[in-house]
Design a protein that fits this description.
Number of helices: 11
Protein name: alcohol dehydrogenase
Bound molecules: nicotinamide-adenine-dinucleotide, zinc ion
Radius of gyration: 20 Å
EC number: 1.1.1.1
Shape: globular
Helix content: 25-40%
Structural class: alpha/beta
Organism: Streptomyces daliensis
Catalytic activity: a secondary alcohol + NAD(+) = a ketone + NADH + H(+); a primary alcohol + NAD(+) = an aldehyde + NADH + H(+)
Order of helices and strands: EEEHEEEHHEEHHEHEHEHEHEEHEHE
CATH superfamily of the largest domain: Medium-chain alcohol dehydrogenases, catalytic domain
GO molecular function, one term: alcohol dehydrogenase (NAD+) activity
CATH class of the largest domain: Alpha Beta
């Protein structure tokens, strides 16, 4: 079958032919219907050899949707032909965190060498995808796989991040979304669907700000050195209730720290390498700083329920598998508005 692989450190991703996978005991084989491209893939392709914990080549794609093509011996719970999406942050299934459905924080994944598909195990940017266990699948019924597949990460990750701050996002509060790309443009919609907060969205690109406005941001601002002051003005000097940083660069974390208010939350989702100093008097009193990773399986089910209610309008730009290297170039250059989705 054809697969999009990251071949070796520093090399460009390329479409190659690999053996067709066959499901072993307990496994499920999917015929891939859609696979999303995430900026984290760009980050991984920038890692040095000692930062990568798994062997290369790697088939990319940690957002996956498909139809069940075959069940391995003993695999039950899904039917051949059923439409599903993949819950990506695989864990051991038995530790304390996995028992809570929070496989994203599996306590044994590292020692057991368990990796998500597309971030260690072969991913969804291929004609077929092997899934290690039916519990890592969620049926999607009639939802369109192409517009639903981003919800497995670009939806689930902001959903989990927002849920952490939900009690603070009351009427009169202000939520700041920094970076309105794949994750950010879904975050704005989640904030509007789940809360009464006022949403202020920031990006460095006017097209992204236009998308942010069209999906529900009340205010949009250019993300520059004046932005923290503008947010303070917009909040009558108080500062933001919650800042969600989908970039995580030094400049955006400075903006987050400079615009959050007393008892506010700064939630760092982007892996842009920045740090935020904390210490008494450095940030306003009682600010909470978090760095969440992905979300739980039950939260993915909740996000899909929101999609079924019509609350989410994910913007996708579609590419064939052969065009996938081009999609990653566009994503690298900041030229994808919404999410790039590969349809093999
Ligand atoms: P994306 O490329 O689709 O979007 C990033 C957006 O940030 C773009 O619109 C870009 O124009 C904007 N941007 C860049 N610099 C900016 C700045 N200085 N100020 C404001 N905006 C700026 O990326 P994505 O796929 O949405 O991923 C966003 C980040 O989240 C990445 O760092 C990714 O690795 C990370 N991520 C983290 C998790 C997690 O679990 N923590 C999960 C998925 C993605
Ligand atoms: Zn991702
Ligand atoms: Zn576990």
């Amino acid at each position: 079958m054809k697969a999009l692989q990251y071949p070796s450190i520093g090399a460009a991703p390329a479409v190659v032919t690999v053996p067709d996978p066959e499901p072993g005991p307990g496994q499920v084989l999917l015929k891939v219907t859609a696979a999303g491209a995430c900026h984290s893939d760009i980050a991984v392709m920038g890692f040095s050899a000692d930062q990568i914990a798994f062997p290369l080549p790697l088939t990319l794609g940690h957002e996956g949707a498909g139809t069940v093509a075959a069940l391995g011996p003993g695999a039950t719970g899904v039917e051949v032909g059923e439409a599903v999406v993949v819950y990506g942050p695989w864990g051991c299934g038995v530790c304390r965190m996995c028992a809570r459905g929070e496989e994203n924080y599996c306590l044994r994944a590292q020692q057991e060498g368990i990796f998500p598909p597309g971030l260690g195990e072969p991913g969804a940017m291929a004609e077929y995808l092997l899934v290690d266990d039916p519990r890592h699948l969620v049926p999607i019924g009639d939802l369109d796989p192409v517009r639903t597949v981003p919800l497995t990460d670009a939806g689930l990750t902001p959903y989990h991040a927002i849920k952490l701050s939900l009690p603070k996002l009351v009427a009169g509060s202000t939520a700041v979304v920094i970076g309105t790309g794949g994750l950010g443009h879904v975050a704005i919609q989640l904030l509007r669907a789940m809360t009464a907060t006022r949403v202020v969205a920031l990006d460095i690109n006017d097209d992204k700000l236009a998308l942010a406005r069209s999906v529900g941001a009340h205010e949009v601002l250019l993300s520059d050195e004046r932005a923290a002051g503008r947010i303070r003005e917009l909040t009558g000097g108080e500062g933001a209730t919650v800042v969600l940083d989908f970039v995580g660069a030094p400049s955006t974390l400075a903006l987050a720290g400079g615009s959050v208010g007393v008892e506010g939350d700064v939630t760092i989702v982007g892996i842009g390498g920045g740090t935020l100093p904390v210490g008494f008097g450095v940030l306003p009193y009682e600010v909470t700083v978090r760095s969440p990773y992905w979300g739980s399986r039950s939260e993915l089910i909740e996000v899909l329920d929101l999609a079924r209610q019509g609350a989410l309008d994910v913007h996708v730009e579609t590419f064939s598998l052969d065009e996938a290297p081009h999609a990653y170039r566009l994503l690298h250059d900041g030229k994808v508005n919404g999410r790039a989705v590969v349809v093999p």
